[in-house]
Amino acid sequence: MSASNPSLDPGARRAILDAVKALEGESVERLSALVRCKSTLGDEAGALDLMAANYESVGLAPRRIATDPDALRDHPGFSPPLISYAGRDNVAAIHTPREAKGRSLTLQGHVDVVPEGAEDLWTTPPFEPSVRDGRLYGRGAADDKAGVMAHVAAIRALAEVFGDELDLGIAVFIEGEEEYGSRSFAQFLADNADVLRSDVIVVADSGNWDDRTPGLTVSLRGNARFTLTVRTLEHHQGADTLLGHQLHCGEHAAVGRDAVHVGNRLALEHVSDGLFHARSSCPGRLANGFRIAKVRASVPTLFATSRRQHRRGRSHGA
Questions:
Q1: Domains in the chain, please, with CATH?
Q2: What is the pLDDT of residues 135-188, one digit of tens each?
Q3: Which residue of 107, 132, 212, 216 has the fewest C-beta atoms within 10 A of its own C-beta?
Q4: By three-state DSSP, how is residue 46 classified?
Q5: Alpha-carbon distance 306 to 317, whole Å?
Q6: What's the pTM?
Q7: Catalytic annotation on 112?
Q8: Quick one: pLDDT at residue 251?
Q9: Residue 44 a catalytic site member
Q10: How many whole angstroms from its chain centre is CA 301?
Q11: Which of 144, 178, 179, 258 is catalytic?
Q12: Would the pLDDT of 249 be above 70?
């Protein structure tokens, strides 16, 4: 019986579906264990270790991929790391069939999550998974821990049915900084191109039609990132302003436009479908949650035109 046959006989197809059903309880337990890992920025190690163990348990050979920022520095898409990469090695796992005659598959996802925010806004603790009405809730349960555990369940089901006869080549890559721009992804792709080369790539991190209707995205446009520097007029600098204060401050009726304000206006007028983040490159007064620049503001803009779920919100439990 060959998993590479594009026309599986009905018996094999039924056996795979039965194996998936039988693994449902175990898969939920494994997902719950992953949700308990508080894999916010800097704390991804536990979740990455757990994924390496999951892949090993289904017969794949996991390995850790260290990130070298110096190797990334000359890449066109380089962004300086937010924190050290020490102890945050990404995970790759490989299944090499006994005979390389079948098709090959690459699976990709991430285990890092965005901060949980105010805990009193959660019905249950964000890192304590809770099943309600047939749905599992917790920070990262939908984005993207359910996705990567679905990959694990699928591989386990195939192994149950085909055993050593599984002639499907499988490569898995799990990263720990997708929520912060996948800054190490370029190096990983360059260093592991031969391992990742496959007939099909399945990414476990795209949108659904709604919380009960799955969606299948067949292609992505990709991302474009750039930094726009906005400079205010010279007389808005602290040294030349009224009584040594900034003229764009609310205390002086905001007679001048500060750089962050101008950058946000540019985003609203010209960035119709993407993510926009503004930050000041110079210290200044705090106003409306922004640290206002005295001279200029760096405004990184990340377009994600094919990923509308960022704009309208994630699935329940994200």
A1: 10-205 (3.40.630.10), 224-303 (no CATH)
A2: 999 999 999 999 999 999 999 999 999 998 888 999 999 999 999 888 888 778
A3: 216
A4: helix
A5: 22
A6: 0.71
A7: yes
A8: 54
A9: no
A10: 17
A11: 178
A12: no
